[in-house]
Amino acid sequence: MNQEPNPFRQPETRDKDDVVYYYSRERRLDRAGPNAQFAASLWNTKKQGFLKTMMATRTLRYMFLMLVLFTMLGFAVDFLMKSRDKGNLAGYNVQMRAMYFEGNVIVTLQRIARNDKVLPVEFEVLLTAGDQTVSGTIPTLTDSFGARLASDGKPNWVAAIVGYEGKQIELAVRVD
User: What CA dihedral angle connects 75, 78, 79 and 84, to 10 degrees?
Assistant: First the structure.
């Protein structure tokens, strides 16, 4: 019996620095089954991007477009229904808040100077909540104005016109 030397039984190293590898990935994949070849073929492929993945089928396309549509619709509704509770007049930032408590709508207007060089001025205020209207002023030395309006039910909105020397801003806020 002639015994041929088996190449796989030879030592991997002949010298300490010379390493010999007997493993060949290509040869092993040629002998592998179809499932292993399919899995190996997917290994180095370029991955699709998010947009291409979302447009791959008709169902995914409709779902993605509906998601985009609803997101844009949400931004539009938020922009249109946003309360305009802040404004700028004569170098001051004016902010309004309103709340309903035990049959009364309590409204506060607060003004804050944008810098130290703003001249103290007196603002005229006209508030409306439901069918109730109140007018008043924010004097030069105070930075807030408060009013309580009697109301049978909770109104949805409170509106205010704040003016100074012919200039005015309109504010509207939802009642908490």
Answer: -160
- Residue ranges covered by each domain of the chain: 8-80, 86-174
pLDDT (average), residues 61-69: 93
Q: Which CATH architecture has domain 86-174?
A: Sandwich (2.60)
Say how far apart CA 129 and CA 137 lie, in whole Å. 17
Sheet with strand 157-164: strands edge to edge:
132-138, 123-129, 157-164, 167-174
Whole-number CA gyration radius for the chain: 38
**Which is it for strands 157-164 and 104-113: parallel, antiparallel or unpaired?**
unpaired
DSSP letter for each residue of 33-88: -HHHHHHHHTTTSPPPPHHHHHTSSHHHHHHHHHHHHHHHHHHHHHHHH--B-EEE
**pTM value?**
0.53
Q: Could you give the CA distance from residue 171 to residue 82 in angstroms, rounded to a whole number? A: 11
Q: Tell me whether residue 160 is exposed, middle or buried, using C-beta atoms within 10 angstroms of its C-beta: 0 to 12, 13 to 18, 19 or more.
A: buried
Q: Cβ distance 109 to 142 under 8 Å?
A: no
pLDDT per position as a tens digit, 82-93: 668 888 888 888
Q: Is the pLDDT of residue 68 over 90?
A: yes
- Residue 130: name the closest of 105, 155, 100, 102 by CA: 155
